[in-house]
């Protein structure tokens, strides 16, 4: 079946089906047991992650890749960092209390764990997969060098904007541990950097990219339908995350305690 058939919509249907059980639980007021709560809310968040990624890639048809990456950077980690935002919010409700300190510790646990997985496994895994793939398929962005794991992946020049802002933010991040806390001025600097990046990305013209699967199919829609579809996916995914994140996070805590695992390690 060609790309304009219904076949590319099958993954979308699967992602929607992943969100359906927990949305049904939330709508009907049912109270499943602890394991079912974690499993259903967790799979719901997983489904939204796919929907968000497809929506952001589809949006690249109408906006620059830099701007789409900026949006995707926020939305793709939204399911993971929604848990962190929940604990940060709970930590600020009643400062200087035991519950507040525990929530702050869990926010740190979630953030550090997420970044370890992203940097330690995610990014390095992509590089190693790309290098391994070029053993069978030639890739102009990979330079073969003699030696064990010596091959190099060259980044596109179009990514220079992202690299510059990521470098500045990374350099600033090294100074945060020196102060021993994350303060308002840190938020102002980092969010301000992101805002400036958004403004620069908006000015970048859209680039023609080859897409396959779901993004390619959605990009084939006429512009009004395409934009409506992207917005609908964003809104649906955001609402689903809000509904699922609290029972998922608190369910993980309780599930770990049942088996003698501290909430810090579970989160």
Task: Provide the structure class.
Answer: mainly alpha
Mean pLDDT: 80
Report the sheet with the most strands, covering strand number, pairing sense and barrel closure.
2 strands, antiparallel
Helical percent range?
over 70%
- Structural domain count: 2
Count of DSSP-assigned helices: 11
Whole-Å distance between the termini? 43 Å
Structural notes for this entry:
There is one protein chain. With 267 residues, this protein is mainly alpha-helical. It has 2 domains: 147 residues, no CATH class; 50 residues. It is 73% helix and 1% strand. The protein has 11 helices and 2 strands; from the N terminus they run H-H-H-H-H-E-E-H-H-H-H-H-H. It has a two-stranded antiparallel sheet. Strand 1 and strand 2 form a beta hairpin. The model has no long low-confidence stretch (mean pLDDT 80).
Summarize the structure.
The chain is mostly helical and 267 residues long.
Helix-strand layout with pairing:
Layout: H1 9-28, H2 34-59, H3 65-76, H4 78-93, H5 98-133, E1 142-143, E2 152-153, H6 160-173, H7 176-179, H8 184-202, H9 213-219, H10 223-258, H11 263-266
Antiparallel strand pairs: 1-2
Helix pairs in contact: 1-2, 2-3, 2-9, 2-10, 3-8, 4-5, 4-10, 6-8
């Amino acid at each position: 079946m060609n790309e304009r058939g219904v076949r590319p919509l099958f993954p979308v249907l699967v992602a929607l089906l992943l969100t359906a059980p927990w949305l049904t639980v939330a709508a009907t007021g049912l109270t499943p047991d602890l394991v079912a709560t974690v499993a259903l809310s967790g799979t719901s968040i997983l489904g939204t992650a796919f929907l968000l990624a497809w929506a952001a890639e589809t949006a690249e048809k109408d906006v620059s890749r830099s701007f789409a990456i900026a949006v995707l950077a926020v939305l793709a980690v939204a399911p993971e960092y929604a848990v962190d935002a929940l604990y940060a919010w709970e930590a600020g409700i009643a400062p200087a209390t035991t519950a507040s300190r525990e929530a702050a510790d869990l926010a740190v646990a979630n953030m550090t764990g997420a970044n370890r997985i992203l940097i330690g496994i995610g990014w390095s895994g992509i590089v190693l997969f790309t290098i391994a793939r070029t053993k069978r398929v030639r890739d102009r962005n990979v330079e073969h060098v003699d030696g064990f794991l010596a091959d190099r992946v060259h980044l596109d020049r179009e990514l220079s904007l992202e690299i510059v802002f990521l470098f500045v933010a990374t350099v600033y991040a090294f100074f945060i541990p020196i102060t021993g806390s994350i303060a308002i001025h840190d938020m102002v600097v980092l969010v301000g950097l992101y805002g400036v990046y958004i403004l620069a990305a908006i000015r970048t013209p859209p680039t023609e990219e080859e897409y396959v699967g779901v993004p390619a199919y959605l990009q084939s829609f006429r512009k009004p339908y395409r934009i409506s579809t992207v917005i609908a996916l964003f809104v649906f995914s955001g609402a689903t995350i809000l509904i699922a994140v609290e029972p998922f996070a608190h369910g993980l805590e309780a599930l770990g305690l049942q088996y003698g695992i501290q909430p810090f390690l579970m989160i």
